[in-house]
Amino acid sequence: MKSAAVNSLTVPSLGFEEHRLTNGLLVLLSSREGPPLVHVTVHYRVGSSDEEPGYSGLAHLFEHMMFQGSAHVAKNEHGRLIDAAGGRWNASTGKDRTNYFETVPSSHLELALWLEADRLSSLAVTEENFENQRQTVIEEKKQVYDNQPYGRAYLRFDELSYRNWRYAHPVIGYEEDLRNLTHDDAVAFHRRFYQPANAVVALAGDFEKDRAMRWIEDYFGWIPQADPPVREPVEEPPDEQERVEEIRDPLAPLPAVGMGFLVPPLGTREDAALRLWALILGEGDSARLYRRFVYDQPWVTGLAAGTNHCRGPQQFRIWFQVQQGVSPEQVIQGVESEIERLQNETAASWELEKSRNQLTYRQVMRLERVSRMGEALAEGASMLDDPDFVNRRFETLLSVTADELREAAQRHLLRTRRTLVSILPEERS
Questions:
Q1: Type and span of the H or E element at 315
Q2: 235-269 pLDDT, tens per residue?
Q3: DSSP string covering 344-374
């Protein structure tokens, strides 16, 4: 087993076995003794970036559809069976993948595998289920985005940041598109993307690998093989100018600002450098922006920095909420000056040390929690065709130098690559 050394601490890598069924299903097994729990996750290589214009929301809609029953499981029974087994379950949709998971006692691993295989092979893509879940998603969009402070601005941010429609449109979809979708559209989408060769099954926790593989062969192995869909790369045209917009939000209690820069995809060395910058800028009380705008000048009530985790061009984002009586422009200018520092000065050794310690802590926690282990393996495989990405990226993050940090900031944190959205409370008469 490989390991990475941080100071005197040696962090073992996440070990796993890789198998491929004859129908193309990728299986990843990470077994170790510990608490009698197993995390089962199924990632499908499909997200909102796989939708065509006019068909937004299909990927997320199927996240809902997958709980609407199958040949041997009634509507909503999937969750009830996992609950009864003492487990937990959920699902999520992103730009590049959709995942479903259960964490169950080891004694109920077979149940979880059977449930996942049954809905992969025989999901009830009925017109009734489609109509019901379409309306559910429309209502979800209203509750999560349209009727929440800053919600619409958050969606608008991607529309401004990306000129390629595949990343620009919201994962949850546009209401007009959702209303225009047909049952035939749903059937075709399901047939294309929900098949074994486009899926990854990952298990992590305390289980017998041989027995687990027998169950996987029994429950998944008979599902017919189909050619996986070809995933076209998501590319952006060269940046030419900054994108700026001011939004009035009647629900916003305070002004807020979103600042983003187009940066290289997940898995590149520059992605690792920018991840370190995100930690140095915005994570923890000693982060640069936190020290400056919370402690030294109490101008913001909250801030965050990070990337949006895409296999294509990512956004390096900084979000902050501005204190009452403080101009957003004041904070924007302050953030700009900090970015200039990133480009012109070498990061302090203590900052690099702190960020590497933060990353080490997260890696250790990932190795301690079966859910994080399983999701990390599956995500690397589904996003980048690299199950070992969780280990490789950690090693890369630890090896990034101060010079590489500065060079990444010089190349990518530029005004021509920038999107700037200011959200202002709606003026009341």
A1: strand 314-322
A2: 988 777 899 999 999 999 999 999 999 999 999 99
A3: HSPPPHHHHHHHHHHHHHHHHHHHH-HHHHH
| Amino acid letter for position 388 | D
> Do residues 185 and 251 both lie within one domain?
no
Nearest to 178 by CA among 212, 142, 207, 205: 142
φ, ψ of residue 273 in degrees (nearest 5): -60, -40
Nearest to 156 by CA among 144, 143, 169: 169
Residue 291's domain spans which residues? 243-425
Q: What are phi and psi of 212, to 5 degrees?
A: -60, -40
Cα–Cα distance, 69 to 83 (Å, whole number): 16
Number of structural domains (the chain) is 2
Q: Which residues contact 14 (CB under 8 A, 6 or more apart)?
A: 30, 366, 367, 373, 376, 377, 390, 391
Please write the tens of the pLDDT for every residue from 335-356: 999 999 999 999 888 888 888 8
Inter-CA distances, 215 with 115, 263, 324, Å: 12, 42, 59
Q: What is the pTM of this model?
A: 0.93
On whether residue 390 sits in a domain, the answer given is yes
